[in-house]
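User: Fold this; tokens only.

Assistant: Input:
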Amino acid sequence: MRIALLGWDLDREAVGAVARLGADVVAFTRWFPDEPEREAHPGWLEVRCPHEIGGGPGEEAVAFGVGAVRAASNSGLGFDFDVVHAMDWRTRPAAVELASRGDGRVLVIASDRAEDEEADDLAEAPFAPDAWFCDHPWGAERRRARIGDGGARVASIPTQAGLGFWTDRRDPRDAPDEGPRVVVSLGRGARVSPRAIAEGLKRARGRAPGLIAAAFGVGPAAARLRRLLKAEGLLSARWGETIEPTTGRWNGAVSEAATLATGADALVDDPFARAAWLLGTPAVSVAGRAPDAIAGAILAGLFDRERREVDVRLGVALETRRVEPDGVAAAWLRAYRRLLGRRPAEPPPPPPAPVPFPELRSRLSLTPISPREAMASWSVRPDDWRVAMEWLGPEAVRAVLTIRLFDVTDVAFDGLNAHGASDVDVGPGETHRTIALPFDGRSLAACLGVRSRWGYFHPLTHCRICHLPREGLAPAPTPPARRLRVAPRRPGP
């Protein structure tokens, strides 16, 4: 599986974790001065994309997309990716540009991160990926509410960054003085009774004076529960008034709560309960229960200290590995394979057209077309390519076809005395390209070969020296046009 991961500020731990699982990973990120545009890391390749800086955040995101396409084309990496994953909102235009130049079957994934929620509207309108990966379960609920039931698939894959993000920065002294807190978090489709939950909280307040609750949810059940709690004076003034709060507010409310009440039957399968454990808060289930049972479960979560400590300790032990980079990368790959497996089978490719005169050898030619441009055309025999791969050995994994240009102006070139050399990487499907040069009137020698990611170069063929014209010289005179007149054929006798 060949994966392109795009990050405005690249998360190298996550990229390295994906590469360690055996995927062929190319990571695209920003370029800064004095940094190489390509850098090889253990198991993956980093490509830095120079782009135009300026304008608003949306304009910079579009400019980064142009830079990513240019970098993929000029470096010879091409666009034959199975998955293109935008790891933040600024790289979503770049993911669309890369995928549009593929074979039409590229899987586009977008990460919906907690820290990006306030900037989502800047690059979301024209963007429709195949799936969303949310780094927090509450973020997944918000995303499902936004795109509706018929939209792209949404996967909740929590990360340490998502669980540690908290946007509510108000001073605790400014917050209202509230009693014991219970956070009720209801996912879409939870089988709960809002009236039973409200009645259970009301009965629990009889033994826990000052008990208040915050209700998180985007469905009709959560809206009705908030109305019932507000009517009974049980709704939290700090956390309960927002209809669709941010992920940071969810983290803040759960971190300060005494217990989390969720609508799942099995807590170990509920993403909200797992997130609460990692935030140090115990969880109880209120699914399908009578008011007395709900009140008992909430009181046990509030006052049974031993149960709370065991609940949180076991939950953290179960969930810690899932939010580490290796666990997140494994969840990504499972989702990639699942989504790719749901796509219809690709029709078999048409048989290749017969070649009447096959190439007897690999060839390369340079033709001057202007003082600063030359047209390169080439062909590679399969046998020559196979020999080059064998010669490179383990380095052949990310080897690219390369034209090495030598500046041999005013010298008798012997293979070692060129003024300088530069490489132009070409794609596997290309057969010609116009090469732009920084100076005019140069004499160029060229060699077509295979270069590994560490710089080893295996030559395949050479071409004769190409002399570019100098700027400002009068063009060659154009000969007069000659016309040929064709007479009609005479009828036979």
